[in-house]
UniProtKB/TrEMBL annotation:
Compartments it resides in: Cell membrane; Membrane
Job description of the protein: Acts as a magnesium transporter.
NCBIfam families linked: mgtE
Transmembrane spans: 292-312, 318-344, 365-386, 392-418, 430-453
Name under which the protein is recorded: Magnesium transporter MgtE
Cited CDD domains: CBS_pair_Mg_transporter (cd04606)
Amino acid sequence: MTELENTQIEINELSLDQVFILLEQQNIDQLQLLLSSALPGQIADILEAMPPTERKQLWALIPESLGSETLTFLHDEVRNALIIDMPAEELIAAAELMEVNDLADMIEELPEPVRQSIEDNLSAEILEHLETSLSFDDGTAGRLMSPDVITVRSDVTLETVLRYLHIHEDLPDYTDGLMVINREGIYQGKLLLNKLLTHHEDTLVQELMSIQHQAIPSLTSEHEIALFFERSNFVSAAVVDENNHLLGRITMDDVIHILRSEADHALMSSAGLDEEADLFAPVIKSAKQRTIWLFINLITAFLAAWVIGMYAETVEKIVALAVLMPVVASMGGIAGSQTLTLTIRGLALNQISSGNTSWLARKEVLIGIINGLIWSAVVAGIAWLWFQDIGISLVIAAAIVINLIAAAAAGIAIPLTLHRLGIDPALSGAVILTTVTDVVGFMSFLGLATHYLL
């Protein structure tokens, strides 16, 4: 293999290590060549993996043709840090190349003078679409949709449709069909491209359009949109207002973005972090973001410590209790987290309703009882071998059964309650569950020991 071929392979890989090496070597030509052959999503991943100084250096080298789309792949915090330092002319140029839904997400974060400057330089058509997008709440179909959609009427022939398509230089990405409307703009269905290309030109659109391709109401949440695409297996779907007027469309790439955001949210919220957080944000800023969650955890820890303090005299007299306390709490915590995870997943997939909640609760409690009996026997046996005290063995066995039943009940009750209150169970469910299992575990174990062993 020649040196040139080796270089080409390295360029196509776009590895983070390679970018760091080229920046350190100030090999600008090689780095620009590397970036010019990369995809915007790849560049965004590299940018998010770099400290602020190197990130700004790399951003300055990204070709203008890739810059605007790269911004749309970045998390909010990283994107905002970059656009703050961008010259107004460069920002305006990037905005003009963005899709309307991406521009709407970005423009809300900009200072008013910069935002006004961008809006003043947009065409009347794009500005109208932008105002429509901004009129919807973030996280809804109306905000997510793209106005870039080709429509046809149901009372025309396929020959007319084909002549109409020939006027266009290109079709929008992810166009698997044309949206069918009437003269008033009411959505009627979808004419799939495979039907258009394989049927006689004299055929009317209304004879071939698919009415099974249902439209998405503009106020539908992103989560519901993802479920809709999962169940329908569509490439694109129409978005309509309350009167069924066609507003735009949502495509598979939008759904992939939703799924990525939900995955990030589930992972980050379990630790009380924002999914848009910058891994390489300044130390003070990152510390502030994590302080609140640590404060909440501190309160729950003191609550568990208070319960232990209530039985300090018992622990002083029977030291073995202090050794075995973590076992009771840990078993309850693990069992509860299993139920909690399954319940949160069920809520996310709309698999839990008032009709099956009681059945699910009974199932989880029964699982708690069965596992409690099995593992209490195991732990009791270990405790007896360790301390040669049948009383301690029986007490810890009873405490584990009680805690696993409580953990199962809490694991399903906590997320259901938080969901009904409009609070994300993934954000605070684990902290509440840990508090419950610690308090119940310590109280049952030490309480039984105080009553029967002293």
